[in-house]
Amino acid sequence: METKYIKWIPENGFDTTELEEAAKIIRDGGLVAFPTETVYGLGGNGMLPEAAKKIYAAKGRPSDNPLILHIAAFEQLEGIVSQVPETARKLADAFWPGPLTMIFHKLPGVPYETTGGLDTVAVRMPEHPGALAFLERAGVPVAAPSANRSGRPSPTQMIHVREDLDGKIDMIIDGGAVGIGLESTIVDMTENVPVILRPGAVTKQMIAEVTGEVIFDPAIMSAAGDRKPKAPGMKYRHYAPRAKMIVFRGDVAKVTDRINRELREYCCNGGYRPEEIGILAAEETADGYSVGQVVTAGSRRKGTVGKYIYGALRKFDELSVRLILAESFYGLAQEEAIMNRLLKAAGQCVVDV
Ligand code: TXA
Ligand code: MG
After folding, report:
1. Residue nearest to atom 10 of ligand 1 (CA)
2. E strands along 108-242, which residues?
3. 145 close to ligand 1 (CB < 6 Angstrom)
4. Is the minimum distance from the CB of 219 to ligand 1 under 6 angstroms?
5. I want to staple 33 with a disulfide (CB 3.0 to 4.6 A). Which of 101, 129, 172, 187 is the partner?
6. What's the mean pLDDT in 87-96?
7. Global pTM?
8. pLDDT tens, 117-137?
9. What is the pLDDT of residue 165?
10. How many CB atoms lie within 10 A of CB 64?
């Protein structure tokens, strides 16, 4: 299949003919990748079982891993979920449109193909103006996982989507680089107390300020990965670079020292050539390494680590390194989300310095 490319530009938006073409593809059961403020999504008509099947096929994703329905207006919830708890209304008031996904009991019209066989459904109203225009025009809830092949880091630029899905889907909307770079926070609203199933830009504290109580799904923070997470997608080894990765946790200066010592050790005694070792560093510390291929994941000071970390992990695949030594990124606004993704990418391989 030939993939058509169209653009959404911040100042000008869409060409209206192209926007209608994108919306029609969705209504007719085809697939369109589109930018959101978190990561690019791979969209299909959320009410059509065949569209969900196509999404799983294009991603190479297990079909028990449910999809998020994207909407452009709060009223669209009525056609998807059986009940909206008061706390969910408050969260929507506070964070929609935005990087928050909520889980509700689904109505029968939402196909099990979309929800991976579950009686609950995940819903999000993104904030990205291009995404909103596209969703509004499509007129149906759009099921969209991140637009990467399963097991690859989520796409934060159009070229990442092209790398993974060119020739496999009908259309890709190029909206430039995304703003946040990590997937939305997922909160399960079907329990008495809201449960965070995946940390994101909307933090636990921000949610607690609205709902009073909120807890983390214990499984997502378990370093050993020995508990079963409630979000089926969180159990897979996601966001995985091809090389083995070790995360060094602790004070930034000590971590840099330790990585430098490890570098010498791997090269002198470990049989690695310097170019076979990647280092994941922040802009501020990137110059502190004597050998190896340093890739920067944004700046601690400017708070752009979340935005660039997936791009950095993809870069390591291109460089064909065999080993990645990674700094950790604590003390940032998005630390929960960043460290959750980084530790998953490393398969929970951590050294405390
Ligand atoms: O920021 C985002 O959320 C992006 C953009 C495109 O909106 N989407 C995204 O989708 O990250 P995806 O498919 O990569 O991740 C969806 C996650 C998976 O971990 C899945 O298991 C979980 O949401 N999920 C979906 N429906 C669920 C449900 N009913 N119950 C529990 N977890 C659910
Ligand atoms: Mg994903």
Report:
1. 145
2. 120-124, 142-143, 171-174, 185-188, 195-198, 215-216
3. yes
4. no
5. 172
6. 98
7. 0.95
8. 999 999 999 999 999 999 999
9. 98
10. 13
